[in-house]
Amino acid sequence: MQKLILISSLAIFTFLAACTQIEPVPFVPSPGHIHEEPQAAGDIPELATQTPVLPAPAPAAELEKYTVVVNEVPVKELLFALARDAQINVDIDPVIEGVVTINAIDQTLPQILDRIARQVDLRYVYHGENLQIIPDEPYLRSYTIDYVNMSRDTTSTNTVATQITSTSGGGESSGGGGNNSTTDVTSISNHHFWETLVLNVSAILGDAAGGGGSGALPITDTVIPNPEAGLLTVRATDAQHQQIQEFIDQTQERAQRQVMIRVTIAEVQLNQDYQAGIDWSYLAAAGKAGLTILSATLGAAPLVGALGTLEPFILQYEDPNDDRDRLAASVKLLDEFGNVRVMSSPQIMVLNNQTATL
């Protein structure tokens, strides 16, 4: 009986010990631990007000138009009459002389003044409410040139080496001969935007630009370039400034044009009908997706060897209306000569008339 009670007590003790949970040791953070500061309770922010839509700008007031018909009238008298009719203040330099013949119908005052300035050497400037007429003498004007301050010189060399070996033998003697040929084609591309711009503007002014040393811009008294700031300051008459402005606008528009160059590298495993190679003239025939064959028209030197003079082979693809499908069609045409596998189709965007590496 005592043995049974002892066994029951041990079983109850084991059950209680199994149900007992071990309390984990509380985590004590390090003194250097970063604690998030509690945010102080604040007032509810005001509702964000929607920014009102600004009204469309008011159209500029239309300038008043005048009709002027004169024949060989002194320019001073005509300018005073225009100022009186337009009710503006005018200051005329005493050096201004000449006669004007003009027939202007329903034109604004600036249009009439521009036509008068083409007959008489004068320039008009607004100073507040006053119109000042002065001689058209050279003055400084700065032009903004949005082009990077960089010059580039690119040189690429292509080398073609051929070796032709011939053997002959007869009886107990044999001989051999060989002919080696190497052709180097060097292409040089120079891109000096700022230097060319200064020379062109100086040519418009009729000035001879002097050299400023190795790597320096040409130095003149009338053309002052500042490539770091993107400015070109020119001392010229108003008529010359109009020509320079037109030239700079066209230059910047063309210099910033970009060209997309796409290249497709294909591998052709020739079939038995074309084991000698691909008939490129077939692809370059009329209507074959813009492919043409060029010879030495790009300045490449001919290859000279034992087989005579060989013109370099150049296959050109040109299609102004290309939509990617035409180039794919050209590659598809190669299927007629064997199995075609496109290896890569890289593309790059470059500035017009500049050398790029793909």
List the helices and strands and how they pair.
Layout lengths: L1 H18 L45 E10 H12 L2 E4 L6 E10 H9 L4 E6 L2 E6 L3 E6 L6 E20 L2 E20 H13 L17 E4 L4 E6 L1 H18 L2 E5 L2 E6 L9 H4 L7 E4 L8 E3 L2 E3 L3 E4 L7 H9 L4 E7 L2 E5 L7
Parallel strand pairs: 2-5
Antiparallel strand pairs: 1-3, 4-5, 6-10, 7-8, 9-10, 11-18, 12-17, 13-16, 14-15
Helix pairs in contact: 4-5
Could you explain how this protein is built, in words?
The chain is α+β, with helices and mostly antiparallel strands and 358 residues long. It has three domains: 65-136, Phage tail protein beta-alpha-beta fold (3-Layer(bab) Sandwich), CATH 3.55.50; 138-156 and 182-256, no CATH class; 260-351, no CATH class. The chain is 23% helix and 36% strand. It has a three-stranded mixed sheet with strand order 2-5-4, covered by helices on one side. Strands 6-10-9 form a three-stranded antiparallel sheet, with helices on one face. A two-stranded antiparallel sheet has the order 1-3. The longest helix is centred in the N-terminal third of the chain and has 18 residues, at 2-19. It is extended and about 90 Å long.
Based on CA atoms alone, the radius of gyration comes out at 42 Å
Query: Class by helix and strand content?
Result: alpha+beta
Q: What shape does the CA trace take? A: extended
List the domain count as a whole number. Answer: 3
Q: How many helix segments?
A: 7
Q: How would you spell out the order of helices and strands?
A: HEHEEHEEEEEHEEHEEHEEEEHEE
